[in-house]
Amino acid sequence: MRTRWFPLALLLLSCGGQFTPETLVDSLKVLAITADPPEVAPGQSASLGIVELDPSRPGGVTTVVWVGCEPDPIDFNRSACNDTSALLQPTAFADFPPGVRILGFGTKAGYASAPTLFDGVDAGDPVRFNGTSGPALAVVIGEQINPTSSNAELRDLFTRIEKKQVQSVFALTRVTVSEKPQKNQNPGLLGLSVDGVALPTNAKLQVHAGQTVTLEPLVAPDAKETWVLELPTGNLPQTETLVTSWYSTAGRFSVPRVDLDSGTITGFTAPGSPQIADDPVPDKRTGTLWAVLRDGRGGLSQQSVGFYVCDDSATPTVTAIMPPATMGDGVVVTGTDLADALDVVVGEVALPHASYSPGRNAFIGDAPALPSGTYPVTLRSKNCSVTDTGLTYTVP
Fold it and tell me: Would you kindly state where each structural domain of the chain is located, as residue ranges?
């Protein structure tokens, strides 16, 4: 039986228990760091990525500095990164000791251990199969940093960060390095279900002010992996636990984290609820929510979804949908009141990067990524209506 927690959350809020939830993204914040793949062989590279934003500084510049450490499979505590607390004191890297290095600048970086990582480990040692962790730290800084900075300039920067003279956020991840043949993969997050119905890919969530809807992640059938832990007493089969964490720029979640096996369904209450005075409808009636899916052993996937707090605008109509005339052109949708359209959905995929063009009086977006075939066209609008246009779109 599935558990629904959101009525209790709303009851607490209505009784005066208002607070700023950990799920609210209203300042510089890191939502997720991904390693792709999350488990590698010695010498093999993983691509690191970060989801970070700062709504408190619209248009403000941030820089991500990545610091990585060599794993220590023998566990002699030789690495400067064995003590996690040291990672949160950047001046500890003042002389950049052996095994510590700058991985890069920006939202992407690469991590790889030495190919000889396990050379000092006996051939039959379980650590070769089970793996060891390579720490990687993302330091998100609220100012522009030159990627060609010298070590002296970086040491000065880390000193200012530690003294809290510059706004910053630290986020730590670990890449598993092992010799096992079947390595961990990031869990497949396919999309979101809203009140039990899959939200079309790329589409915005339509909600009325203060409305509560249920959200569930849609995961791939093979998202939950099994693996074996080698122990001196024998092999121990293991199964992943998938947990979803929720975040948003406005609105409230009934529970911030949900174990997918618990049967708990998350309730999302849109901004504008009379029970939550400090969560008004945003000026442009728009916001973003994120689902971050973790597998408990380093694998992570995330998806962002825009939402619109519906108004009393007109219901648009679509009279024609035209495919791109030439390579690089967009799909052109014509009709009436299209300034009040949110999404044009072909099959179950909304036109990517779509918006209303006043100059052309049309709704224009990229071609949908769909297999060849003919698909129905649906219109989703700012007044929360969903309309079958009666039209079709053919993908060659």
Answer: 3-23+185-309, 39-177, 317-395
HEC secondary structure over the chain: CCEECHHHHHHHHHCCCCCCCCCECCCCEEEEEEEECCEECCCCEEEEEEEEECCCCCCCCCEEEEEEECCCCCCCCCCCCCCHHHHCCHHHHCCCCCCEEEEEECCEEEEECCCCCCCCCCCCCHHHHHCEEEEEEEEEECCCCCCCCCHHHHHHHHHHHHCCCCCEEEEEEEEEECCCCCCCCCCCEEEEEECCEECCECCCEEECCCCEEEEEEEECCCCCCEEEEEECCEEEEEECCCEEEEEECCCEECCCEEECCCCEEEEEECCCCCCCCCCCCCCCCEEEEEEEEECCCCCEEEEEEEEEECCCCCCCEEEEEECCCCCCCCEEEEEECHHHEEEEEECCEECCCCEEECCCCEEEECCCCCCCEEEEEEEEECCCCEEEEEEEEEEC
Per CATH, is 317-395 categorized as 3.40.50.720? no
Q: What is the pLDDT along the chain (396 residues), one digit of tens a residue?
A: 454 444 433 333 434 445 678 999 998 899 999 999 999 999 999 999 999 888 877 777 888 989 888 888 876 545 556 555 555 555 555 556 667 788 988 999 999 999 999 998 999 899 999 999 998 989 898 888 887 877 778 778 878 887 888 888 888 899 999 999 999 999 999 999 999 999 999 999 999 999 999 999 999 999 999 999 999 888 999 999 999 999 999 999 999 999 999 999 999 999 999 988 899 999 999 999 999 999 999 999 999 999 999 999 999 999 999 999 888 899 999 999 999 999 999 999 999 999 999 999 999 999 999 999 999 999 999 999 999 999 999 999
Q: Kindly state which CATH superfamily the domain 3-23+185-309 is placed in.
A: Immunoglobulins (2.60.40.10)
Evaluate whether 3-23+185-309 and 317-395 have a shared fold.
Answer: yes
